[in-house]
Amino acid sequence: MPPDPFFAGPGLDRADHLRADPVAILALLCDGEARELVWDNGAPAIDEQGKLRWGPIVGDPPLFLGFDGPSPRFSSLPDGNAPIDARAHFQLLSQLDAAEAPTFAAALSLANWHRRHGYCSVCGTVTDPNRGGWSRKCGNCGAEHYPRVDPVVIMLAEHDGRLLLGRQPHYPPGRYSALAGFVEPGESIEDAVAREIKEEAGIAVVNVTYLCSQPWPFPSSLMVGAHAEALDDSLTIDTNELDDARWFSREEVVAALDGGPAASFQAPPHSAIARTLLERWVDGLK
Amino acid sequence: MPPDPFFAGPGLDRADHLRADPVAILALLCDGEARELVWDNGAPAIDEQGKLRWGPIVGDPPLFLGFDGPSPRFSSLPDGNAPIDARAHFQLLSQLDAAEAPTFAAALSLANWHRRHGYCSVCGTVTDPNRGGWSRKCGNCGAEHYPRVDPVVIMLAEHDGRLLLGRQPHYPPGRYSALAGFVEPGESIEDAVAREIKEEAGIAVVNVTYLCSQPWPFPSSLMVGAHAEALDDSLTIDTNELDDARWFSREEVVAALDGGPAASFQAPPHSAIARTLLERWVDGLK
Questions:
Q1: Where is the Nudix hydrolase domain positioned along the sequence (chains A, B) (predicted)?
Q2: Would A176 disulfide with which of A165, A274, B47, B196, CB 3.0-4.6 Å?
Q3: A102: distance to nearest CA of chain B, Å?
Q4: Is B212 on the interface with A (CB under 8 A)?
């Protein structure tokens, strides 16, 4: 069986029950085992072995990320004025040990959410970190705001043994990947899969099945991987969303995953759940 | 096969491609077939047949919900100062035709999101509806904000042929239902299922499998239904979250779904995905 998607996995023990207890969190900050995440250019710093870098506690870091064994783990908020360079952060993934990826994802998503949620959406007042950094609270109207997790469906539509893959304008040359889009209010996962394939490629699908999921911290998506059966293969491509979309045979997908000179397209990178979906399809697991 | 979860289904044609075209939306507002959703006490109004009530266009409703056949459908934002009475809205579901439920969910989630997102979270400035009401835009810093969809895992943990169900403090007397909790940043669906069961009931699970999903507009959840295998049945209940949690046999679940005098607990209502999960489990579909 192919590996689980990158970024999936248990990560730290989040010790959720401590978040509402500021005295307990303060005590953990003073624990000799406590460590603080090191940031570099707006992302968690990675050492030469692909591990996250941790240092001594400096000041009063507002994010309590959880425990690594007995060691409490904290993070400051990186400089709020630096632009978020998602492309540079994405490049880091090739250096990151998969076992560290869930913690990288949690810290980066949480930090980016804090950067863009300093004000109360209900009344416009400045808010403060709360619950060990897992929410923000408004001192004016009392509203409590929680980090966003935005579900995105990403799916393989299949017809007559071939898969539908598309190219977004920002992809590297030759890259094709699974179609994807945000789940909207009032939609199930299955409804969102059908709507997105209809919108982007003009085809109707049935029998949507779930495959696997992955957090994706650019900035805060939950990628929900699925498979669907297309009722026909006649494409009407939404050129606002896609440069191109095509049907690929099993042999073409195998060659692309192998990455050799016979490949007719460039497969998504190892960190992307789209690649996991293709690997599972090739393995016959759909 | 049991029915799909309430609130799941196609609903209106959302015509997403028109949202970025304010001239097209204005033309649709002047279309003789255009209709506007009627609101009652902060929720979409329901007629005696369980259908949503629609009236003529009044003024300039900011939400473009999509098409019902050739008829463009719009909504105003209900009075922003009235408190949201989620409990009263929930009571409406017993009167609502299932075919209308996806549109009810989309309109209610979207309206409630607008009510609580009048200010820019980045800079604190008042924002305006944008993209036919499917986003809000800040005129000061330029940030665009999209409606929240908050993924929640809801799951049946099974051990030795019995299911783990719990009672939240606000449940009606005798009610037990599936454990549930929000997916957090940096988590896959499978990771969230395992963490929530561990936190609330103290047991470890393996082999998490997805079952079905449902939008839940109180205010904006995406319920993700799952099954998991518990490694043991020795419970440590988090009494901050749950009044109680117990293991129930197949016979007890069948009796509760039947609702007769033999039931040892009260099953969740028809609108809740938790009931769909129980129905599917009983049917052996897991």
A1: 147-270
A2: A165
A3: 6
A4: yes
The predicted-structure confidence for B260-273, as pLDDT tens digits, reads as follows: 898 999 999 999 99
Q: Tell me: pLDDT of A91 over 80.
A: yes
How many beta-carbon contacts under 8 Å exist across A and B?
186
Q: Which sequence spans correspond to the domains of chain B?
A: 16-116, 150-282
Q: pLDDT band at B2, cuts 50/70/90?
A: low
Query: A221 and chain B: CB distance < 8 Å anywhere?
Result: no
Which residue of chain B has the CA closest to A192? Answer: B10
Burial track A164-203 (b if 16+ CB lie within 10 A, e otherwise): bbbbeeebeeebbbbbbbebbbbbbbbbbbbbbbbbbbeb
Q: A113: which chain B residues are within 8 Å (Cβ-Cβ)?
A: 185
Mean pLDDT of the A152-162 span:
97
Helices (H) and strands (E) in chain A, counts: 6, 15
8 Å CB contact of B185 and A102: no
Residues A150-282: name the CATH superfamily: Nucleoside Triphosphate Pyrophosphohydrolase (3.90.79.10)
Phi first, then psi, for residue A44 (nearest 5°) are -55, 135
